[in-house]
Amino acid sequence: MAGSHVRRGDTVGVIAGRERGKRGRVLRVIPDKSRVLVEKINMIKKHQRPTQKVRQGGIIEREGALALSNVLLVCNRCDRPVRTGIKLLADGRKARVCKRCGESVDKG
Prior knowledge:
By secondary structure, the chain is mostly beta strands. The protein folds into two domains: 1-51 and 58-74, Roll (SH3 type barrels); 78-108, no CATH class. 0% of the residues lie in helices and 43% in strands. It contains no helices and ten strands. It has strands at residues 11-14, 23-30, 35-38, 43-48, 58-63, 66-67, 71-74, 81-82, 84-88, 94-98. The protein has a six-stranded antiparallel beta sheet with strand order 6-3-2-1-7-8, with no helix packed on it. It is elongated. The model has no long low-confidence stretch (mean pLDDT 93).
């Protein structure tokens, strides 16, 4: 399983598709399918039958998965979606860095 350029909690910008130009927070990354769920982006309507878990049936609205290739991480300094690289820190940890300005996008 290869590492992803986005993680849960990151702010990402959508660069392709119907939702292009919008930003949101990553709710879930699905690496085996190369998909990502972004808060309030790509909303779909799902017809839900009442079950033991979900008492109330009907048409519910929820986030649909986007292709991982259609989102880019938003840099804190540049304030725009950017490509990221990996930099090895002095203590041996890896950190994601902005390709545009060189700023680390990982907290800590």
